[in-house]
TrEMBL record:
This is DNA polymerase III PolC. InterPro entries: DNA_PolC-like_N_II, DNA_PolC-type_N_I, NA-bd_OB-fold, NA-bd_OB_tRNA. Residues 95-206 form the DNA polymerase III PolC-like N-terminal domain. The gene is polC. Keywords: Nucleotidyltransferase, Transferase. The keyword Nucleotidyltransferase applies. Residues 8-79 form the DNA polymerase III PolC-type N-terminal domain. The keyword Membrane does not apply. Its EC number is 2.7.7.7. One of its GO terms (molecular function) is DNA-directed DNA polymerase activity. It comes from Lacticaseibacillus paracasei subsp. paracasei Lpp71. Residues 238-300 form the OB domain.
Length: 300
């Protein structure tokens, strides 16, 4: 059963369980899971999401914040965004700036301090950062601009070029305004992150209380799951894992039950089926719910 890239994106949004106002953002209607690379040894999922336009920062940040939290019991995650029609504005540059500076892995204190005191502005289709003198401008070019450009590209600002210019007056004027904006955004982001952590902790506590869902023969730790997209023919025994997005339990004439659920690892998807072999299996069937992450082994 093949899901389209947009359908896989919708299942990912279901798993992230975003707030209603974020989920209803019209900018998400064009969303797709363009690619997911699963690194089995390092246990990392690299997601590439596609959109028609650059997302409002609050929407992007909600996804970027929730993704590692939802997957923390499964694997580490990395997120990049590809936009087909990136319209870059001063407002979007400013909204994403603090995130870009934080994630650009700038090692030098001078460059980081300079970036934290201002926001870039668009001039002739380039994002311009002002510096107080030529020496700092050269240092910024060598130590920071490339990393900042790359981080902007990773969040959807494809084709953006950055430039450093000396302008003492403008740099001084922007400092006070940016610091006020930064304080407000930091407070909002901290509040949102705290709420996400609280919700995730509550869900994890519930999972620990109920215990694991396990049926059939116990799988070995050496049974590494295959990426679903790589399974192209019948196999006697294969292990996969993924997000459950549909569950049905049917009562048969023989009084046995048939469990049918659909699962995706965002590279492809499968339908899994299992017949019950007694009350214990039926009790376990009742615990399998939409939104869980399950590992499954069987024939294809």
């Amino acid at each position: 059963m093949a899901l389209s890239q947009h359908e896989m994106f919708e299942k990912l949004l279901d798993q992230l369980d975003l707030a209603a106002d974020v989920r209803q953002d019209p900018s998400l209607t064009s969303g797709t899971v363009q690619n997911v690379t699963i690194h089995e040894q390092s246990r990392r999922y690299d997601f590439t999401l596609g959109f028609d336009a650059i997302l409002p920062f609050q929407t992007f940040n909600a996804i970027a914040t929730k993704l590692p939290l939802v997957f923390q019991q499964i694997a580490a995650t990395d997120l990049s965004v590809v936009v087909t029609q990136p319209t870059i504005t001063d407002e979007l540059l400013a909204q994403y700036w603090q995130y870009v500076v934080t994630h650009a892995e700038i090692g030098t204190g001078i460059v980081r301090e300079l970036c934290e005191k201002q926001v870039p502005t668009l001039e002739n289709d380039r994002a311009v950062i002002k510096t107080e003198n030529e020496q700092i401008r050269q240092y910024l070019i060598q130590q920071g601009l490339g990393k900042l450009e790359e981080t902007y590209r990773q969040v959807g600002f494809s084709g953006l070029r950055m430039q450093a210019e000396v302008d003492e007056e403008q740099a001084a004027q922007s400092m006070a305004a940016f610091q006020a904006q930064r304080a407000e955004e930091t407070a909002k982001m901290a509040k949102a992150a705290a709420e996400v952590v609280k919700q995730q902790a509550a869900k994890q506590k519930q999972v620990q209380t109920d215990g694991p869902v396990q049926m059939g023969r116990q799988m070995k730790m050496t049974d590494a799951p295959q990426q679903m997209v790589t399974i192209t023919q019948e196999e006697r025994s294969v292990t996969v894992e993924g997000y459950v997005f549909d569950v049905e339990v049917r009562e048969l004439r023989s009084k046995r039950q048939l469990l049918i659920f659909k699962v995706t690892d965002y590279s492809s998807s499968f339908i899994a089926k299992k017949f019950s072999n007694g009350p214990e299996d039926e009790a376990m069937f009742a615990r399998i719910q939409k939104g869980q992450w399950l590992r499954v082994r069987g024939s294809v």
